Every structure is written in structure tokens, then in C-alpha cells.
Amino acid sequence: MTCHVLLVAALRNPTVRLRYLAAREVLTDYGHLSRYPELLNLLGCSHLPAQRVQHHLRELATTFDVTVQVAKTPFFFSSDITPTARPIAIDGSQRLIDSGDHHEAVFWIIATFARCHTILAADAPQLHEALAPAFQAAVTDLGISATRDLIHRAEEVTRFLPGLWQTTEDILRSNPNITE
User: Fold this and answer.
1) CA distance linking residue 180 with residue 177, whole number of Å
2) Fewer Cβ atoms within 10 Å of its own Cβ: the N or the C terminal residue of the chain?
3) Is this structure's pTM higher than 0.85?
């Protein structure tokens, strides 16, 4: 949600899939681009080369296509894991990678992987188990391989919040479309 605070301050769409790309644009527009690497570091993807992100997207595409075939249990995000949503979930991430914005594709790749595995765990446990290593590899590349890593990342985000709020307040003060 760190990106959403910035997007809302700039009166921009708090998009889910394109949140990092949009946040980078906001930070650029308001003279705070130096904060952007911090967002990528908090996500854990700043060190990933495009080829590795591409690998994870290929693995996700396989998982996505299998999940679409077996999905039965309704989840609030079920409409995102359908043949109709594939151009957004998979092809949209590919467009980001192709345009040189591979880091910006990572959040949506991981979110979509997680959604697929939630469905697979409910509707096809054997497939969930068989496809889990690809998801685990993607998350491990972000520096998350145990609960302690999630706790540490949450602590890093908490430490980041005062600086994020300062940047957000600056954007709010500088935004010509916001008046007191």
C-alpha cells in the first residue's frame, strides 16, 4: 500500500496492477524520484534482472492456465483468474517486461501467483503442491523464505513510513488540484 498513499496524494488512480509504474511517475512529477528505489527495495525486487522476472512470468503463465481449468470455489478475486483476465494478468505483465519495466511487473506477478495458489489449494490440492515450487522460487527471489523474513520486511516498511508520509505531505502541498 506504500504506492497507494503516493497515488492518492497526487489524485491519481490507486491502481493495483500498475501501482509501481504509477508511483514512479508521481515521484518523478513531484521531484521525489530518489524515493523510488526504496519502494522497490521494500518489495524485494530491485536486484532482479529482467530475465529472472521473465522466468517467473513464464512459470506464472503455466500456473494461471492450470488454475483456470480447475477453479470452482468463488473468491473475491476469482474474476482475475479467468481466460478473459489472462490478457491483463499475463500479457499485461509481459508488456511491462518488454518495455523495460520488469521491476514494476513483479508485484502483480506475485499477487497473481498467490491468487492462483489460493484457488489451487481449495480446488486441486495435488496441482497446488506440484506447482508450488515455482511460486516459492519467485517469493524467495524477493527475500521471503520463512515467516521471520515476512516479519523483517514488515518492520522495514514500518521504518519507511515516516519518510513516506513526509513525501506524501510534500506532494499534497505541491498538488495544484488540492486546496485547503
Assistant:
1) 10
2) C
3) yes
Instruction: Give the model confidence (pLDDT) of 75-95 as tens digits.
Output: 999 999 999 999 999 999 999
Contact 107, 43 (CB under 8 A): yes
- Does the CA dihedral 69-73-79-80 come out positive or negative? negative
> Rounded to an integer, what distance in angstroms lies between the CA atom of residue 79 and that of residue 96?
21
Contact between 29 and 10 under an 8 Å Cβ cutoff? The reply is yes
- C-alpha count within 13 angstroms, C-beta hemisphere, residue 57: 27
As a whole number of angstroms, the distance between CA 75 and CA 118 comes to: 9
Alpha carbon dihedral 127, 129, 131, 134, in 10-degree steps, equals: 170
* Measured distance between the N- and C-terminal CA atoms of the chain, rounded to whole angstroms: 25
Q: Is the pLDDT of residue 9 over 80?
A: yes
Q: What share of the chain in percent tops pLDDT 90? A: 95
Cβ neighbours around 177 below 10 Å, total: 6
The DSSP letter of residue 76 is T
